[in-house]
Design brief:
Distance between the termini: 119 Å
Helix content: 40-55%
Strand content: 15-25%
Number of strands: 20
CATH architecture of the largest domain: 2-Layer Sandwich
Largest sheet: 5 strands, parallel
CATH superfamily of the largest domain: Histidine kinase-like ATPase, C-terminal domain
CATH topology of the largest domain: Heat Shock Protein 90
Number of domains: 5
Shape: elongated
Radius of gyration: 55 Å
CATH class of the largest domain: Alpha Beta
Structural class: alpha+beta
Strand order of the largest sheet: 2-1-3-4-5
Amino acid sequence: MNATTRILVAEHNPQLRSLFSGVLCAAGVQVREARTGRQALQVVRRERPDLAVLAARLPGLSGMEVGRRIKADEALRDVVVVLVSGRGADSARAVNNLDSGADEHIATPVTAEEFLARIRLILRLREATVTRHTREQQHRRLIEILPDAVGLADARGRLLAVNPHGVAMGGFRNEAELLGKSILDLTAREDRKRLGTDLARALRTGLPRTAEYTMFRRDGQRYQVEMSLAAWRNAAGRPAGLVGIVRDITGRKRMQQRLADALALNQTVLAASAVGILVCRSSGQCVFANEAVALIAGANVEQVLRLNYRRLSAWQTCGLRQMADRTLRRGGPLTGEFHTISTFGKEVWLHCQTARIFLDGEAHLLLLTTEVTERKRAEAAARMFSRRLWQAQDEERRRIARELHDSLGQKLVAVTMRLDLLRDQAAGSAPGVLQRIDDSAALLAECSREARTLSYLLHPPFLEEFGLTVALRAYCERLSARGGLRVTLDTGEAARRLPAEAELALFRVVQEALSNVHRHSGRRRARVRLTHRPDQVLLEISDRGRGIPAAQFKNLRQGIAAPGLGLVGMHERLRQLKGRVEVRSGRRGTKIRAILPLPMDAFPPTRIEAPLTRKRIASEGAAPAA
């Protein structure tokens, strides 16, 4: 007993009430007093004491009636009722025969020491009872809120108790429908023998047993469960029955089956995929390879799985290992094309995409690859054909230009000389004759200029002899001299000769671009800039005109040729030399950039040429039309 213990003393005899209260107060407990049965019942309901000492004969309501009402109230079930009566035979008989609900009985007269000892014993028993009751409530509540079914069965497997989840899992309306049923009766026929063996083993050994079974719901529907069984023992320590925890794993089984089906489908897709798939650890060891990647490598899957890409010289020399390492470091997908000879001796072109994936917490390299050898060969053949076509076209232009200049030009000169002789011989003739001769000479001079212009457009005469810079200077000066288009040329440092094919390609780009400026820009000014760098040549042609129409420029950016702009020829010529053409266009004009990568050894030694004077430019013929 302690200061928090509360005890009600209900006694109509003032001497006994004072005796009991004094003893209890001296023991350090809180005491409440009542003189009648109704007062006692009110105090109990209001304060809920730990113990109520009730005289058997209280005015109004007897102690026995008060005790019955206390025990009938669920909220007061933890209040211990002690009934006090005399030692007479009638009093004892009344206490024993009447349903008072008292937990203990004290007969009077009684000494203070004996009374206090009895009260202490009763309180200790009450504390143990309350503790047991609290634990039972906690265990019951725990079992009720478990997401699994919990059941208690006897040694033959008949159900003695089932929690609400077990009732709901089986599809029953209440616990009563399950009590008395055998666990075996709720189990599918094919699993009953195995479950019976497991029940017997759990009872015999006392060891927990977990296994999966198929059971029936109330409506006959089958479902999969995982059941854990353990034996519970009686007061003598012998197995008296079984306690089981049952979990519905139907959804889990369904998901496992779906996962297995998905894995099987993935395996089938990966195996049948035309894309080569390779998975390697960060150490380089291959852990997965499909048939496609083995076919690309010229081997079988078992041979590929024995490889470590960090030890393959083919990966190192073609650059694939560097891309793989970069992918493992950064994680982002990378794409590239590689030309190599596989470890098994097969020469291939590969289009590869790499990505980083994690398997069991470890970074792995995923490689998706397709063989593009045939495509590369076709592209190379197409480039070779296109290159030969351009070369044949340029040779034909050169031949025609020479024919125009050397043959037709000389004949036109001869005809001009004869007209001059004819004019001298016709001196003194009628004025009309001389006028017709002069008109014919002027027309002949115009034909001669047109022939020289056409010859220059077909093949610039200075390109082979003096190089790109001189040819561009002459071409731009002629355009400016004609007055149709003023061109500013910026060549930077002293000219450096390029390979003949590169100089011709860049010159044609300038021709086509300036022709577009003249026809489409609406302006009469343009700028040409030629820059030599250690690793490339950069050519820019820009104007401040109206720009390329939006629809045509959109098609151009999407790779659709814009008709009438000559950009297809520019792209194709530069592509033959591994260069590219970039076009920017807007309201402030158009800029065309031709970028031609060249190594240093592609430049022949610089030659110092005689200066090209305006007189010599004029002697080569009239300026070509834009």
